[in-house]
Amino acid sequence: MNRLVVGTAGHIDHGKSSLVQALTGIDPDRLKEEKARGITIELGFAHATIGEARVAFVDVPGHERFVRTMLAGVGGVDFVMLIVAADESVMPQTREHFDICRLLGLRDGCVVITKADAADDDTRALVALEVAELVRGSFLYNKPVVEVSARTGAGLDDLRAVLAVAAGQSRARPEGGAVRLPIDRVFTMRGFGTVVTGTLVSGTVRLGDELTLVPGAAGVKVRGLQVHGRAEDVASAGQRTAINLGGVELADVTRGQTLASRESLSVTRRIDVALDLLASVRPLKHGGRLRVHHGTAEVFGRVSLAGTDVVDVQPGTSALARLRLESPAVVTRGDRLILRGYSPPVTIGAATVLDPAPTAPGIRSDSGRRRLEELAVADGPSTLAAMVRERGLRGVPLSDAVARVGLPPSTAPAVIERLETAGALRRAGDRLVSQAALQEASARVLALVKEFHVQQPLSEGLPREEARARLFKDVDAAVFEAVMQALVSAKALIDRERLAVTGYKMALPGGEATVAAVEGAYGAGGLTPPDVTAIAASTGLKPDVIETATTYLLRQKVLVKLDTLILHRGALDALKRDMAALKAGGGGSPVRLDVGTFKEQYGITRKFAIPLLEYLDRERVTRRMGDARVLL
Ligand SMILES: Nc1nc2c(ncn2[C@@H]2O[C@H](COP(=O)(O)OP(=O)(O)OP(=O)(O)O)[C@@H](O)[C@H]2O)c(=O)[nH]1
Ligand SMILES: [Mg+2]
């Protein structure tokens, strides 16, 4: 079945609510106060089957003080009925509501001249002329103009026919997109709890779905669903929907919040935009305060104009700007915002979101302006690539492809893959990082490691953690790993605890002969190794040369340090073999060893015996029991 969400628009008392009631049989003015004062205060909702279509109506107030409410209602509609009373013709809110519809980029609608019974032929002809003048050059140009009377019923069938045709032609909304429902009403129902309503702008909501309420980021569960007053299991884009929410109190939900898929929208106080100023308003000054309307929300903010020394935007022209908001808004790239003056609160223009969560610092410069110019003409993939480039090694979270760039969740993975193949970016964990930034980081790692080899020729390489601390501060661990991986697969780097350039050979201190002589001295010493003075005496080498060679041999694990003793690995291995033989000699019964026996057997003093026995304990060859040891 076709469906259509129809909004009313127009000056106060021009018969909007009466028309909705005449078309649907439902009075959209529910409040006592509305009935008493005869004006609409809150948004009204009604629905009817017209021809083959389910048509939902959102009825807005015409009073100039309620434009904010009007904006909350008109944001989600497919089709607008611009209402002009035959006895009053075009009035201020006729113009303002019509401006808003144009600024929002509405594409479909018609003009309805109401109260046809209350004006004579000449007056009605004049009204028709004024209406034609108003809509010339707009989306309503050449659209039907229908004269009706809610009182007599005249013209209602013509209007129904217009709506039926529009429903048949209306473009399907993106059902596969992220769920997005700007909330226009919140109430409680006995036995149900919190219920919110709104037009589902995109996506599909199912019973049991887990969604978030933003701003605020509260997790909620869909406990019940109604479309056009009927319980359903599924609601899809373009439908007026009432949702019973679990997990949230009435007091925690307000109109202006959005119900959305997790991580699909940016919650932000800073938005880069392209703005259009109406021709009928005063120039907009840099730094000026204004009201920003989006979906069903209104927030205050200031406008900062892009470029060096740009002081204002002239009426009827466009500009690139940054909006700094006083409270968070929930937007994505491509969204349309309505701008109203702070005081008086009249509609002054609109803005299209270029970057909902800019990370680049200033826009008051030529380069700042150029960045926005590029964003304004870029498509989704190149926008994503530009944002990733801008962030260098810090990259952007994967979820930004949807929340910040506005790619539909269903196509985002394919876009990312294409950009990866094209060499624009790489996935590192859950971040996207520019390929250029990764390459630059690789080069810096290599340079650092090479420099380290020069400065510390006796070391196997630069400690991995040191490289990370020096070059990858504030960078996600996954990004560091991606750089390491790239260097290893390019065969440029050996990546162990220490990093070395592929093919790197440690310099031998004093040459191989020196190292061999020092090693030999330790080897000959066995379990009672010589000290530096003794080695110097036996080899004729200088003490500092012996010390460097010793350090080298320790790093190579040819020598082992036990407290202050330095022994040759071979001596310790031989000791362990002796112990194994001793244990085997016991024929299965426990073999004990005391310090005295040990000293005697190897002809060593306490100074050597104790560190050696403790070493054997650590190696689990022996276990200490009182003064003696048991062989394990
Ligand atoms: N004669 C005549 N009067 C009408 C017609 N439609 C509405 N009215 C009267 O016009 C007045 C305003 O009608 P509403 O439908 O409340 O107007 P509205 O545009 O919804 O007003 P707001 O919501 O406050 O902006 C009421 O007194 C209606 O009875 C009509 O077709 N003919
Ligand atoms: Mg009304």
Strand content: 25-35%
Q: Give the cofactors and ligands.
A: guanosine-5'-triphosphate, magnesium ion
Low-confidence stretches: none
Compute the number of helices.
19
Number of strands: 35
Radius of gyration: 39 Å
**Average pLDDT across residues?**
91
Basic shape: elongated
- Structural class call reads alpha+beta
Estimate percent helicity. Answer: 25-40%
The separation of the N and C termini measures: 83 Å
Largest sheet: 8 strands, antiparallel
Layout of secondary structure:
Elements: E1 2-10, H1 16-24, H2 32-37, E2 44-50, E3 53-59, H3 67-74, E4 79-85, H4 92-103, E5 108-114, H5 121-135, E6 145-147, H6 156-169, E7 180-182, E8 185-189, E9 193-199, E10 204-206, E11 210-214, E12 218-227, E13 230-231, E14 234-236, E15 240-246, E16 258-260, E17 266-277, E18 284-285, E19 289-294, E20 297-305, E21 312-313, E22 318-331, E23 336-341, E24 347-355, H7 366-377, H8 380-390, E25 396-397, H9 400-403, H10 412-421, E26 425-428, E27 431-434, H11 435-455, E28 462-463, H12 464-471, H13 477-489, E29 493-495, E30 498-501, H14 511-525, H15 532-539, H16 543-555, E31 559-562, E32 565-568, H17 569-585, E33 592-594, H18 595-602, H19 606-618, E34 622-625, E35 628-631
Parallel strand pairs: 1-3, 1-4, 4-5, 5-6
Antiparallel strand pairs: 2-3, 7-16, 8-9, 9-15, 10-14, 11-12, 11-16, 12-13, 12-15, 17-22, 17-24, 18-21, 19-20, 19-23, 20-22, 23-24, 25-27, 26-27, 28-30, 29-30, 31-32, 33-35, 34-35
Helix pairs in contact: 11-13, 14-16
Bound molecules: guanosine-5'-triphosphate and magnesium ion.
